[in-house]
Amino acid sequence: MEQLSTRQAALKPKDYKSDNKPVWCPGCGDFSVLSAFTKAMSAMTLDPERVAVISGIGCSSRIPAYLNVYGFHAVHGRALPVAIGLKITRPDLTVLVAGGDGDGFSIGGNHFLQACRRNVDITYVVMDNQVYGMTKGQASPTTAPDWMRSKLTPHGTRINPFYPLVIALASGANFIARASSNDPNGTARVIAEAVEHPGFSFVQVLSPCVTFRPEQRDWKKIVRPAPVAPTADPAVAARRLMTDDNFFIGTLFKGGRAPFESGFAPRAEVAGELERSFGLTA
After folding, report:
1. Kind of pairing, strands 123-128 and 175-180?
2. What is the pLDDT of residues 1-39, one digit of tens each?
């Protein structure tokens, strides 16, 4: 155990990166978020063999392939139920989920609500660029109603956008924060804080898509620290969100709800026993 602790303490952010090279567009904010993941893991001295990062589909969901930890690339919108199932059956693991605004708030929207409500001890990091980047620039759930660049919405979406922090608070998330990919060190601190807080933690990261939303380069000039300290009172957090312009960064809410406990204990199964349980052997 002492040798393991020494090895963990010596791990640098680069040690949490895999040999796979990211294929994001040059200038994509997700590069910085990947860096924030590795910095957070290093700061927390996490054992890579006890970390799992789950994702769905999309540019941001490529992150597990670029990390030197356990990972699982789920189908579109289903990362959260996979992560919850893993955490319930393996409570000894640190489980993080990486996704985007399309994957997480559209097809995965109901899973997001239920994950907040269940309050299982996982951390959900959503890279929000207000567009479907991997499928060539369609409007996403967080796209402003008057954005007209997409050929599919030449007159804008004409519908109200999804407000992730508002929905997370109303649904019962135990930790809620917003970060910016323009500040990877700050994002790393927020991710580490989210992981260490018990229960379901949600972090929205403003991560520009420079290919289909080049105007988002200006986010670097717009984002700023929230003028108020985090609160444990959901009513206070709700009032603060009424004056939020979606560019305040920092931790909004740190709740005190006890995380969901399944009662399962980690158990190593032998291959033969698993095969018999599924009827694969006579």
Report:
1. unpaired
2. 444 455 556 799 999 999 999 999 999 999 999 999 999
Write the single-letter amino acid at 237: A
What is the dihedral sign for C-alpha 217, 60, 18, 181? positive
Asked if 188 contacts 125 with a C-beta cutoff of 8 angstroms, the reply is: no
User: Domain limits of the chain?
Assistant: 22-277
Q: Is the dihedral of CA 21, 23, 26, 28 positive or negative?
A: negative
Phi/psi of residue 105, nearest 5 degrees: -110, -10
User: How far is Cα 119 from Cα 199, in angstroms, rounded to an integer?
Assistant: 5
CA 63 from centre of chain: 10
Q: How far is CA 157 from the centre of its chain?
A: 25
In angstroms, the CA 156 to CA 164 distance is: 20
Please say whether the beta carbons of 54 and 86 come within 8 A: yes
DSSP 125: E
Q: Which fold has domain 22-277?
A: Rossmann fold (3.40.50)
What region, left, alpha or beta, does residue 196 occupy, with left being phi > 0 and alpha being psi -120 to 50 degrees? alpha
pTM: 0.89
Bridge partners of residue 65, in order along the sequence: none
Tokens, residue 7: 């090895």
* Pairing mode of beta strands 201-206, 123-128: parallel
Lay out the sheet containing 51-55: strands in order across.
70-73, 51-55, 94-100, 123-128, 201-206, 175-180, 248-254, 224-225
CA distance 182 to 186: 9
